[in-house]
Design goal:
This protein is mostly helical. It has helices at 9-19, 23-35, 40-53, 59-69, 79-91, 105-114, 118-127, 136-169, 176-183, 210-215, 235-284, 288-305; strands at residues 193-195, 199-201. A hairpin with a 3-residue loop joins strand 1 (193-195) and strand 2 (199-201). The longest helix is centred in the last third of the chain and has 50 residues, at 235-284. The chain is elongated, with a radius of gyration of 58 Å.
């Protein structure tokens, strides 16, 4: 209520009623009726009961646990302000709302030293600071030294960055000596020879170029006037892809021709082999009548060659 010129009890109660609404306003009226007269001292009791009614029962233990394990110094606060308001917050919490709920100074100093920033710890080690024997004021003094040093280094770094950015934005001016040297250069001379591979040069023509003689007449150099024709940087990859596809198609066609020729040749070979087998089988088979004639003839020859048993000369 500071700054609102609300100093008397009834005015303070009226101010609270304007700020509250709903269940909070109902509870405030209930506690105000139970406490009694609307005085400044009774208003403190009503505020404590109102806070206790809308907070959890373990709010004090949770806040103390946060301070011991998870608390770090806020960046936008100085160490002096953070330390002196830390325990005061615990003293204003339920259920007792007094100084007995504060963390002891020795334990609080140990917690603050362990949670201090890295630059603060470096200065503590340099000065031999011991949390077990030091006081909170000594801790605040060392932390303020670290904060001052950090602020000076930050300002120096910002000044250096600003100077570097200012110098980089300045336009570089060419000295008179270098300008004269540049102006005294002779104009570009006209080249005496021209090669399809290497362009204008002072050594050889296309017919004397060893690259063209060894690789054939395939000029690679392109004049400056035709740059637009080669603006597409993917054109060479498209040409390579087209050539590769043509090579694959040609190989595929040749393979299909070979398959077809091989198939025809195999069919011819199979047909000729079958015909020869038929002819050989037909030559081996003789008709029955011819076979009987051949047997009779062979028998006749054998009888004529054999000696006759009735011949007297043999006896």
């Amino acid at each position: 209520m500071t700054g609102n010129n609300v100093t008397t009890g009834p005015n303070q109660y009226a101010y609270w009623r304007q700020c509250l609404a709903g269940e909070a306003l109902r509870k405030f009226n209930e506690f105000a009726t139970n406490v009694g007269n609307e005085t400044s001292n009774n208003l403190v009791i009503v505020e404590q009961r109102l806070v206790s009614g809308f907070t959890t029962k373990d709010i004090l233990s949770r806040e103390a646990r946060y301070i011991r394990y998870d608390m770090y110094k806020p960046r936008n606060r100085t160490t002096r302000r953070a330390v002196h308001t830390l325990n005061e917050t615990l003293a204003k919490m339920p259920p007792l709302f007094n100084a007995t709920q504060k963390i002891p100074d020795s334990e609080l100093l140990d917690i603050l030293a362990s949670k201090a920033p890295k630059h603060h710890k470096a200065i503590m080690i340099k000065h031999g600071f011991d949390p077990q024997t030091a006081t909170i004021e000594e801790f605040v003094e060392i932390s303020e030294r670290a904060e001052t040093k950090e602020a000076l280094e930050k300002n120096s770094q910002e000044a250096t960055n600003n100077y570097a950015s200012d110098t980089s934005n300045k336009k570089s001016t060419r000295s008179v000596k270098s300008r004269k040297k540049y102006e005294e250069r002779p104009p570009r001379e006209r080249k005496e020879f021209y090669c399809k591979e290497h362009g204008p040069n002072s050594t050889h023509n296309s017919r004397d170029c060893k690259v063209l003689i060894n690789a054939g007449d395939k000029p690679k150099w392109k004049p400056d006037g035709n740059k637009k024709e080669y603006s597409d940087h993917k054109a060479k990859y498209k040409n390579k892809l087209r050539d590769m596809n043509a090579i694959h198609q040609e190989a595929y066609d040749e393979k299909e021709k070979w398959k077809k020729a091989n198939k025809t040749l195999q069919a011819k070979l199979n047909g000729k082999t079958k015909q020869e087998a038929d002819e050989s089988s037909s030559s081996n088979e003789t008709p029955p009548l011819q076979d009987q004639k051949n047997r009779a003839r062979s028998q006749q020859y054998s009888d004529s060659d054999s000696p006759d048993s009735s011949d007297p000369s043999i006896a």
